[in-house]
Amino acid sequence: MEVLKAALTPILYDLVLERWGGYAAVFDADHEAVPVFTVDGKWVGEAASSDVILDLIGAFEKEDGLR
């Protein structure tokens, strides 16, 4: 096998992904609000801060009938 050209991989220095079971959040150093998704990519919502992520997930599960 021959490699013709190496592709550049973007590096996201200011973003951190964190996962809780079936949910993921994207932490951005420039913003306090935290977008939250299911790992399938379904929008859960935006937490005003990292302190309320689990509350947001709980409300989403209640709304979707998952609890």
Oligomer: single chain
Overall pLDDT, averaged? 84
Low-confidence stretches: none
Count the beta strands: 4
Query: What letter string, H or E per element, gives the SSE order?
Result: EEEEH
Overall morphology: flat
Helix/sheet category: alpha+beta
SS element count, helices? 1
**How many separate domains make up the residues?**
1
Radius of gyration: 16 Å
The profile of the biggest β sheet is: 4 strands, antiparallel
Spatial order of the strands forming the largest sheet = 1-2-3-4
What is the CA-CA span between the terminal residues? 50 Å
Helix content: 10-25%
**Beta-strand share of residues:** 25-35%
Overview of the molecule:
The protein has 67 residues and is an alpha+beta fold. It has one domain (15-63). The protein is 16% helix and 33% strand. It contains one helix and four strands, in the order ββββα. It has a four-stranded antiparallel β-sheet. The radius of gyration is 16 Å and the shape is flat. The relative contact order is 0.16. The mean pLDDT is 84.
